[in-house]
Amino acid sequence: MSKLRHHQLGLTDDDVIAMYETMLLARMIDERMWLLNRAGKIPFVISCQGQEAAQVGAAMALDKDKDYVLPYYRDMGVVLHFGMTAKDLLLSGFAKAEDPNSGGRQMPGHFGQKKNRIVTGSSPVTTQVPHAVGFGLAAKMKRQDFIAFTTFGEGSSNQGDFHEGINFASVHDLPVIFMCENNKYAISVPLEKQLNCQHVSDRAAAYGIHGETVDGNDPLAVYEAVSKARKRAVNGEGPSLIETVSYRLTPHSSDDDDSTYRAKEEVEEAKKLDPIHTFEEYLHGAGLLSHEGKEEIRSKLRNIIDDATDYAEKAPYAEPETALKYVYGEE
Amino acid sequence: MSKLRHHQLGLTDDDVIAMYETMLLARMIDERMWLLNRAGKIPFVISCQGQEAAQVGAAMALDKDKDYVLPYYRDMGVVLHFGMTAKDLLLSGFAKAEDPNSGGRQMPGHFGQKKNRIVTGSSPVTTQVPHAVGFGLAAKMKRQDFIAFTTFGEGSSNQGDFHEGINFASVHDLPVIFMCENNKYAISVPLEKQLNCQHVSDRAAAYGIHGETVDGNDPLAVYEAVSKARKRAVNGEGPSLIETVSYRLTPHSSDDDDSTYRAKEEVEEAKKLDPIHTFEEYLHGAGLLSHEGKEEIRSKLRNIIDDATDYAEKAPYAEPETALKYVYGEE
Amino acid sequence: MPKISYIEAVTSAIREEMARDENVFVLGEDVGKRGGVFRATNGLYEQFGEERVIDTPLAESAIAGVGIGAAMYGMRPIAEIQFADFIMPAVNQIISEAAKIRYRSNNDWQCPLTIRAPYGGGIHGALYHSQSIEAIFANVPGLKIVMPSTPYDVKGLLKSAIRSNDPVLFFEHKRAYRLIKGEVPDDEYTLPLGKADVKREGEDITVITYGMCVHFAMQAAENLAKEGYDAHILDLRTVYPLDKEAIVEAAKKTGKVLLITEDNKEGSIISEVAAIIAENCLFDLDAPIKRLAGPDVPAMPYAPTMEKYFMVNPDKVEAAMKELADF
Amino acid sequence: MPKISYIEAVTSAIREEMARDENVFVLGEDVGKRGGVFRATNGLYEQFGEERVIDTPLAESAIAGVGIGAAMYGMRPIAEIQFADFIMPAVNQIISEAAKIRYRSNNDWQCPLTIRAPYGGGIHGALYHSQSIEAIFANVPGLKIVMPSTPYDVKGLLKSAIRSNDPVLFFEHKRAYRLIKGEVPDDEYTLPLGKADVKREGEDITVITYGMCVHFAMQAAENLAKEGYDAHILDLRTVYPLDKEAIVEAAKKTGKVLLITEDNKEGSIISEVAAIIAENCLFDLDAPIKRLAGPDVPAMPYAPTMEKYFMVNPDKVEAAMKELADF
Ligand SMILES: Cc1ncc(C[n+]2csc(CCOP(=O)(O)OP(=O)(O)O)c2C)c(N)n1
Ligand SMILES: Cc1ncc(C[n+]2csc(CCOP(=O)(O)OP(=O)(O)O)c2C)c(N)n1
Ligand SMILES: [Mg+2]
Ligand SMILES: [Mg+2]
Predict the structure, then answer these.
(1) Which protein family is it in (chains A, B) (predicted)?
(2) Any idea what DSSP says for residue A74?
């Protein structure tokens, strides 16, 4: 049997190349958003940078034709794997009518697309946790074999909804995966001012469920943990709490200035573990990605993003008075 | 050194007799309240029965001249030790103007008395948990050596405020004791439908704090656990989560009929561990309480309660229009 | 037509909807074996089993939030909040989530969730078991708030709430549960959400109210009829969004309007009713708009003296109606 | 007098109160090193240290609840909620606890807590960073809600809020933070809570409003003055409980009343203002009460087209004022 880690996990070479491409696409869209923001073309960006491995590793461990995902605002990697396109995301960035997430009603990062089972999200953090439990409950009641997957930051794991939601799922053994993307900061507040346990996953003990902390810069480690959690979930063994540890490589959002609360050196140090690069090295070492191959992928993705940007920039806004629509369902 | 457990804990013979008397007083007031309710004289009772050992054992481990207590509705044993009298409690039962808790504004069980550092409570469960943390924060900021002690049921440990409050205290190492009086039911809902961990105290791991489960029918065990927790708290070692396990010997309240959801046999079985009796046996075994001594104490307490009942029954209600008072402070 | 109690109307509406649609289920505290602390879900656990009548952990934000998730999937959860006063921990889920799901997703997702809760005073419930809490939600587009007064309305409106594709807050007056009885047809029926109902036709003064106060007003109207005053009584039934047309029509009909709520006065449902009238038919009025409500104190005290002082009751209603009629 | 910005007035009120009373402290998300996401607590961490400018965990119910506990002890906490939209998880602590502590303890305990939060739209904040949420709390006796429009009012009222022995919700318009500048005396002063303020004397029409809309109305009034219309403008400042006397006086003054809020219309603060007028001075009115507000949709969209459509702005205000004047 191959010694390559991804083979041992049952992933083909194509799989890991796809994994890499999705990670890279997320990164490159994110970078484009910042450029557009700094050029004054879009008012707001909130980034996935540094968390792509956790997001794509996890998403690939799910069944994207069955499972429901309830992502948080950084999860571009998750929604890309679940079928959202660069065009969709740029339309959202530009707040255009055709944006499938919200028709330009919500800020970027507020994902939602029913046809891909991406459940609509909001700004107040952690509200999606009980929602995921509701999807898990529906799976159990309707005897369906899908699971619900939801994510949130480590700061958000201090909200009451984290506790109430996971507790409910644990009592009823519901098929839900709770994944905390620990990026060490909640805006300016560092981990040690948010919580006093060593790992966010230590909190699993409060619910008698499986808890596990993995390297969030390693998509294969995340893939493995989430695969196993999914297996447990569909087997009726209940929910899991998985923590992925990485680092937020950008300021909190385009409105933030992180130099007021963290040292440049700390960020530089973290960049050495940037999952895009470390995973590139893995693929290179495995003989799957040459320098030229990398450039080819990048230029392919760049074209996709260019087209998406063009399209989205030219697309129309929703008409003003459509703001009145969809308060209630049409009877 | 004496082999008697209470001596080993540093409690004198007088201390444990006082402990017993307070437990018994709580029990006998509670029984009186039920009689008054069934006679149509007071509209509502919520009981301490079965939890007196936990309450009095804990309260005696505190400094009643310094510490602040934030009790929940069953904590008659706590407030009695902190200085509330039988008369005060009967005034509250009858909803009379002189009731120090609320002047007859709140139901019985909604304790509060500033002069005794009993912090006013409400009906929505678990809201007192963050309040206790606020007292702990004040202690730290003002460099005072008091601690805050708060209690709640095991069902209430599933509220968001439990999580948010304890987490805050743990991050700031605040002098707070969180005590869960696990009586196996939340109204009709049994423990296993409330939570999935073995002990409520397992939840301490989520906050990196000391957690401990003790026999709630044994006042000495509770005394010991709370004494140690208090020591840690004043030494800056942060909060503790203590669980006392006992059983709710009465229906949830005077409005409840527990025969719809639990078997008589289960209740009868639990009565064998009734802390009033088991502690009597301990004191008897220690040569501190004879049969006559017991009867003497009972008749003393009965007189106190009779007087309190008489007084409270005759006391006036608040005037109707005083309902308008104290919405805001007088400027 | 058989006469049933207000709470029986609740139970039978839920039972029939559960039988009709397997996606309907109940979740809340003590709703299972215990059948609810008021016994509104009595018998449902036995009939439909513990999977469809779920005793939840004691956590209202989860009750609402899990309900929202299940509703987005396509279920039709009926969440019970044990007392309306205890809906507060769920406010974020209700206002930030349930109310905004359709709008924020540009009609992609919806949230067909019904949240039931007993509210209201006069049962020695003291500060935290007596409150009217509808005003908190009555500024939140995306929600509908139903507060029926009769068994007939309860049954027809609760069925519509359960079938609605939007979140509905359904507040039941706990004192009405066993006190109020009324005729309810055996045959299946529903009533439209968002429509007020004229409970009494009259020519002299208009009373607009909802919940238990409808009964107080009806009682007072009968007494006043003997004295020759003829009251027109509009039952709002849905208190948000309000039935503006019905309000304007009722106000115009007599030109003298009394608005009643048992909630605190300032910022209540009847404030908006007054505003609608002042905006739309000011010149049709022959008297200032009169409001009868609870005083602006935090909530109703426990002691009977103060509770009675707080509560709207038939005497206070009759006096206010008479004063207005004599204006 | 020096001119400072609205947000500088916030910061300097807090700084002066912290210097004056060691029991005053700040807690909230990112209020410390970061000085707040809007920088309202800028420099306080450096000046007073991390014990008195506390970065809390991300949990609003704890921010309010811990603040309440500390306040009951005798501290004077100033809790910051990062955006008013995110106050929802703290509603139970605010409504069930802070508001009722004095009343339920029969005046034995009190809760001198100030909760500050930026609210309001027009900054591309979309559904969850733009809302006006005051109406949720404007039916809760025991609370006071302050929503100032000018730096002068901000400073004087925030100081009074901090010194108040009751809980105060202090909502700051986030668009005003840097946009609105005004004169503020160097000398210490406070302003009374609960009092509205006439911002412009006039004879033809009365405008009653608060927050950013005060500035829209002032601007429109200047334009209309050139056309010969003279507007009287009342700034509510405290929106709960309302200053009834000032409202009635202002309404009577011209007999034509325009009420403005940027909140959704139904169930808003101006509904109660309309009700007060309809109850107390109906016969002094020469025109129906007119309300200008946001539409009844869940909240303000992100796309500039829809955001603009939603928002009250100087043009809409001027048109409404003119229409009323011409009635
Ligand atoms: C209930 C609530 N409070 C405050 C905010 C403002 N806010 C947005 S993101 C954020 C920090 C989140 O930190 P974390 O959960 O660690 O996620 P991260 O952004 O680091 O990925 C805060 C405070 C919010 N969105 N919702
Ligand atoms: C927020 C809230 N929800 C519901 C209730 C109604 N209620 C009162 S006591 C209770 C059960 C409490 O159970 P537990 O915490 O175990 O305490 P116990 O009564 O068993 O001592 C419930 C559901 C409440 N008071 N507050
Ligand atoms: Mg983070
Ligand atoms: Mg219990």
Answers:
(1) Belongs to the BCKDHA family.
(2) T
Taking the C-alpha atoms of residue A74 and residue A76, their distance in angstroms, rounded to an integer, is 6
| CA atoms lying within 13 Å on the CB side of residue A203 | 29
Return the structure tokens found at B241: 């989560």
**Catalytic residue at C129?**
yes
Show the low-confidence residues of chain B (pLDDT under 70): 1, 331
Which residue, among D105, D169, D191, would best test binding to B if mutated, counting the most B CBs under 10 Å from its CB? Answer: D105
Q: Is D38 in the pocket of ligand 1 (CB under 6 A)?
A: no
Residue C125 included in any domain = yes
- Report the distance separating Cα B301 and Cα B27, nearest Å: 10
Mutate which: A106, A191, A197, A254, vs D, most D CBs within 10 A: A106
Q: Mark whether C117 and C34 lie in a shared domain.
A: yes
Residue A196 tokens, joined: 């006093």
* CATH number of the domain encompassing residue B166: 3.40.50.970
Give chain A's domain count.
1
pLDDT at site A130: 99
Which uninterrupted H or E stretch holds A61? Answer: none
D131 Cβ below 6 A of ligand 1: no
* Cβ atoms of C220 and C314 closer than 8 Å: yes
Query: In 10 A of CB A272, how many CB atoms?
Result: 9
Task: Return the ligand number nearest the Cα of C125.
Answer: 2
Residue C225 is assigned to a structural domain of this protein: yes
CATH number for position C280: 3.40.50.920
Cβ atoms of C307 and C122 within 8 Å: the answer is yes
- Percent of chain D with pLDDT strictly greater than 90: 99
CA distances for D311 relative to A216, A327, D130, D307, angstroms: 42, 17, 10, 6
pLDDT at site D69: 99
Instruction: Label residue C1 by pLDDT band (50, 70, 90).
Output: confident
Average pLDDT over residues A143-149: 98
Q: Are B209 and B166 within 8 A, CB to CB?
A: yes
Closest CB from D264, D267, D274 relative to C278: D274
What's residue B307's pLDDT?
A: 98
D100 touches chain B (CB under 8 A): yes
The predicted pLDDT at position A102 comes to: 98
Q: What is the Cα D94 distance to its own chain's centre?
A: 17
**Amino acid (one-letter) located at C254:** T
Pair of tokens at residue C165: 């594709």
Nearest CA, atom 2, ligand 2: B124
Q: Out of A134, A163, A325, name the one closest to residue C66 (CB).
A: A134
CB contact under 8 A, A138 and C69: yes
Q: Which of D99, D128, D268 sits opposite C139 (nearest CB)?
A: D268
Report whether residue A55 contacts ligand 1, using a CB cutoff of 6 Å.
no
Q: How many domains does chain D have?
A: 2
Ligand 2 close to Cβ of residue B156 (< 6 A): yes
Residues D159 and B184: their CA atoms lie apart, in Å, by 48
Parent domain of C225: 197-325
C residues 33-62 lying closer than 8 A (beta carbon) to B? 33-35, 37, 55, 57-59, 61-62
Task: For residue B64, report the phi and psi dihedrals to the nearest 5 degrees.
Answer: -75, 0
CA separation (Å) from D198 to C61, D208, D319?
43, 9, 21
**Chain B touched by A232 (CB under 8 Å):** no
Residue C190 has pLDDT above 70, yes or no: yes
Percent of chain C with pLDDT over 90: 99
Question: Is the peptide bond preceding residue C241 cis, with omega within 30 degrees of 0?
Answer: yes
Read off the pLDDT of residues B69-85 as tens digits, 9 standing for 90 and up: 999 999 999 999 999 99
Dump pLDDT digits (tens) for B29-73: 999 999 999 999 999 999 999 999 999 999 999 999 999 999 999
Instruction: For ligand 1, say whether the CB of A74 is within 6 Å of any of its atoms.
Output: yes
**Quick check: is C189 in a domain?**
no
Spatial contact of B58 and B228, defined as CB atoms under 8 Å apart: no
